Amino acid sequence: MSTHFHVSGTGVTGPLAGLSSNYKWWVLVTAIFGAFVSILDTTIVNTALPHIQRAFGSDLHVASYVTTAYTLAQGVIIAASGFLANRFGIKRMYLLSLALFTLGSVLCGIAWNINILILFRVLQGASGAALFPLSLSLIFGAFPEEQRGLANGIFGIPVLTAPALGPAIGGYLAEYVDWRWIFYVNVPIGIIGIVICWRMLHESELQPTLPFDLRGFLLIASGLGLLLFGLSNLAYDGWGSGLSVTGPVILALLLLLLFIPLELRTARPLLDVRLFQRRNFLVGNLISWVAVASLFGSTFLLPQYLQVLRGLSSYNAGLLLAPQGLAAMVG
Asked: 230-249, pLDDT tens digit by residue?
């Protein structure tokens, strides 16, 4: 959503042009740190959920919000990431996002009840929402056009393995250390990423007069948030629940339908929906959606099945999912 940044075929334009050839590799390293921890945290919690349930005496429905609250917050905030980076600077927003994400990880680790943990997960998800799209923009801005494929390939290895390796890492920490360390593990990674970003990256050209499509943001943020909320409750409450499933889903679809004609009439839209008229763009997005939904869906459901129904430990359940990470690296 609105994650367009000004790049050229030879890398960053304006004040960042002509930087040393080493600079682009430092950008790639920084991008990997931020994207890895953000994506890792979508799945590292899954194998630790039974431990969190026992620690706080909650049921699976409530405990599942530890995972879904993170995704909900990301879905709402990510729409504004492009505007914020263009308006205030991509380095500044990346640093702020990574710093707040790291702080949110610490707060999740010290949570004293399930409701506070869910609240801190919202903060963590909202803070880290911009990390992945900004990482891609940093890479596209630093690398010339002929090297972007190589950079994306290197970037994709840790990014694709993070959601699959998350259950194994989370299972080991929950089983043999403490479930709180599934959040603390982000802290050293985040600090290293912050230091590299602060010392090595250069700020992009600002656009202080860039207008913000507030109406479009409110529509898509509330629409995606309600849709994710309704679908996350479907397995527990069923379609018969108007307050937690049917109502939010219907309202979400109406808001998203309103979003399309609004963006078509807006001079500087949050999302240029005309892009979906391009066949390759549309097909590429559909394939990506199916791939991501399959990967993230399985990494949530399989740990619960293996632990609750098959009686495996958190670590063994996570190990059974580890081959997905190897397959993602090869693919």
From this structure: 887 887 778 878 788 899 99
Cα dihedral sign for 224, 287, 10, 192? positive
Classify burial at 191, counting beta carbons within 10 Å of its beta carbon; exposed 0-12, middle 13-18, buried 19 or more: middle
Residue 39 tokens read as 């994506």
Domains of the chain, first to last = 7-212+273-330 (1.20.1250.20), 214-267 (no CATH)
Structure tokens that stand for 90 in this block: 């991509």
Model pLDDT, residue 20: 57
Q: Tell me the residue type at 7.
A: V
Q: List the structure tokens of 270.
A: 């949050």
Interatomic CA distance for residues 39 and 132, integer angstroms = 8
Helix (H) or strand (E) holding 7, with range, is: strand 7-8
Q: Is the dihedral of CA 277, 281, 287, 289 positive or negative?
A: negative
Q: Which residue pairs from 189-195 have beta carbons closer than 8 angstroms and sit at least 24 positions apart in sequence?
A: 189/33, 189/36, 189/37, 190/33, 190/37, 190/98, 190/99, 190/101, 190/102, 190/105, 191/102, 192/33, 193/30, 193/33, 193/34, 193/37, 193/98, 194/95, 194/98, 194/99, 194/102
Residue range 1-49, pLDDT digits in tens: 444 444 433 334 444 444 556 888 888 988 888 888 888 887 888 888 8
Query: Is the confidence at residue 111, as pLDDT, over 90?
Result: yes
Nearest to 167 by CA among 41, 78, 11: 41
Which residues touch 294 (CB under 8 Å, ≥6 apart)? none
Q: How far apart are CA 143 and CA 134, in angstroms?
A: 14
pTM of the model: 0.82
Nearest to 82 by CA among 199, 198, 210, 273: 210
User: Under a CB-based contact definition with an 8 Å cutoff, are residues 307 and 147 in contact?
Assistant: no
